[in-house]
Amino acid sequence: xxxxxxxxxxxxxxxxxxxxxxxxxxxxxxxxxxxxxxxxxxxxxxxxxxxxxxxxxxxxxxxxxxxxxxxxxxxxxxxxxxxxxxxxxxxxxxxxxxxxx
Length: 101
Description:
Elements: E1 2-9, H1 15-23, E2 35-42, E3 49-56, H2 59-66, H3 69-79, H4 84-87, E4 92-97
Antiparallel strand pairs: 1-3, 1-4, 2-3
């Protein structure tokens, strides 16, 4: 299994707005080959810190996804988000191979 975390920070007063965006996400990734699970995590002490966690069957499945047209579509929509402060956020991405369970 392969897990990707994309962590980003927003002003804490905008955290609920961002959470709502993710609750209403397109779910295109859910249809990708090798997709297992999506989660949006909120830091319990720093409410403006959010992490998207996506689980994949393999690193190859993840790489296939980020090279796909659907991935490009989703990220183009983000660039056009009306709130430019949110649209310009660049996440810190970490990739993990599950080595024990």
